[in-house]
Automatic annotation (TrEMBL):
Domain Amine oxidase: 16-448
Cofactor: FAD
Presence of keyword Protease: no
Family matches, as InterPro entries: Amino_oxidase (IPR002937), FAD/NAD-bd_sf (IPR036188), Flavin_amine_oxidase (IPR001613), Flavin_MAO (IPR050703)
Protein name (record): NAD(P)/FAD-dependent oxidoreductase
Family per record: Belongs to the flavin monoamine oxidase family.
Organism of provenance: Microbacterium awajiense
Keywords: Oxidoreductase
Length: 454
């Protein structure tokens, strides 16, 4: 058993925890970051698989992500634009493939008119929503009682229009079926990106990547902390002492005494920690009403980016395909070509009911519907399955069930004495993204500095 003393303990060495630790250190407080994994980065993970560098976790940077952009600049990292020259492809309800440019999918004129109308309606609603306080919208409770799917059914009878609008929130972001979350949760997702139109615009939301991979952000933040980051230290107990200090204990017998602690990891992992005394009843109820989404991120590396020869950008969409979206994910300076595809919610469920070989075959078949038979024969194939990650258990982040956001959202970030909470799952701006994690790390650190100095 080893005993240490610090001003603040941070549980989780992802972007939120490492940002908070660096901010606290700048303020003159001593810190210790405890990470369960054998690496830093949390849901950011850049690795080499069969000779190919893959972004297994988060990877994109959009223009509105100011906190992330500031951090990238501060760390001296470089970015490059996602490849987007040429035409995108769309597969409709009838299975027909159409090449197109622009943001609106090539559908029948009446369906296009409905999609444009729905986007305008959602943009107007989103403009009324504060992403940090969506529960304060005057119609919050009403919007939180109806699923996004049911809300869309109220707005239009056009099935393809509904399917395409739902795709941008359900498949692409929350990675849950549109009947599983509320209209208010959908508005929060859009508000966190500035507007629903931003979610529709792949060139905006998936704008740039970091040369060498986005995991460099937490890696370089951890370097600044040196020996104050400990890996392989799952926390199992957090005890609040009589003087409102905390004692944090890990599976490996490390005990750390501190004035405050930040839980900087996915909230679905809170039940793995024993709190003494227990968290307040409201917090316990709250945590039972949030859950992770489910998505398979598919990486397929080819000898060359063959789709470019056909004048295609590598961008593809269809609510009716196993892989509902795909992009050119070729690394900076790489002669090979990489496609990344996404399989979410019920499609992901179905694919984990079959063998790994059949899953791969079905996914590559889906990619071939967009890009032709060459897509079936990658040099490297890899599936990012964050549901299998012991210290994440889903992707991309947690969201509330029906009614949960209006009922509990205001309590999500509220500290419990010296126990603070910070991760992308509870962000407003940047919700579910690295940008949100950095913002929440800054917020938690500022609150502790104020608390300590009071």
């Amino acid at each position: 058993m080893e005993d240490l003393t610090r001003d603040v303990v941070i549980v989780g060495a992802g972007a939120a925890g490492l940002t908070a630790a660096n901010e606290l250190k700048k303020a003159g407080l001593s810190v210790l970051v405890l990470e369960s994994r054998d690496r830093v980065g949390g849901r950011l993970w850049t690795d080499v698989v069969d000779g190919a560098m893959l972004e297994i976790g988060g990877q994109w940077v959009s223009p509105d992500q100011e906190a992330l952009i500031e951090t990238i600049a501060d760390l001296g990292l470089e970015t490059y634009s996602r490849y987007r020259e040429g035409e995108s492809v769309y597969i409709g309800r009838d299975g027909a493939l159409t090449r197109f440019t622009g943001e609106i999918f090539p559908v029948a004129p009446e369906t296009e008119a409905e999609i444009v109308r729905l986007i305008g309606m959602l943009d107007a609603l989103v403009a009324e929503v504060d992403p940090d306080r969506p529960w304060e919208h005057p119609d919050a409770e009403e919007l939180d009682r109806v699923s996004f799917e049911a809300w869309l059914e109220e707005q239009t009878d056009d099935q393809e229009a509904r399917d395409n609008i739902a795709l941008f929130i359900a498949g692409a972001m929350l990675t849950k079926p549109a009947y599983a979350f509320s209209a208010l949760q959908a508005l929060l997702m859009a508000a966190s990106a500035g507007s629903f139109s931003h979610l529709v615009d792949a060139d905006y939301i998936l704008d740039k990547r970091v040369v060498g991979g986005l995991q460099q952000v937490p890696l370089l933040l951890a370097e600044r902390l040196g020996s104050d980051v400990l890996l392989g230290q799952p926390v199992n107990t957090i005890r609040r002492d009589a003087d409102d200090a905390v004692t944090v204990i890990t599976d490996n017998g490390l005990t750390v005494h501190a004035r405050a602690v930040i839980l900087a990891h996915a909230p679905v992992l809170y039940p793995w920690i024993e709190f003494d005394p227990p968290l307040p009843r409201l917090k316990q109820q709250l945590h039972q009403h949030i859950s992770m989404g489910f998505v398979i991120k598919v990486h397929a590396v080819y000898e060359r980016p063959f789709w470019r020869d056909a004048g295609l950008s590598g961008t593809a969409f269809s609510p009716y395909e196993i892989s509902h979206e795909a992009y050119d994910n070729t690394n900076h300076g790489d002669q090979r070509g990489t496609l990344v595809g996404f399989v979410s919610d019920r499609n992901a469920d179905d694919l984990f009911r079959v063998s790994a070989d059949e899953r791969k075959e079905r996914i590559l078949e889906s990619l071939s519907h967009y890009f032709g038979p060459e897509a079936k024969s990658p040099l490297v194939y890899f599936e990012s399955d964050w549901g299998a990650e012991e210290w994440t258990r889903g992707a991309y982040a947690a969201s509330f069930d029906l009614g949960g956001l209006a009922r509990y959202g205001a309590d999500l970030r509220t500290p419990v004495g010296p126990i603070h909470f910070a991760c992308s799952d509870m962000a407003g701006a940047g919700y579910q993204h690295v940008d949100g994690a950095i913002r929440m790390g800054r917020v938690a650190a500022a609150a502790i500095v104020e608390q300590v100095r009071a």
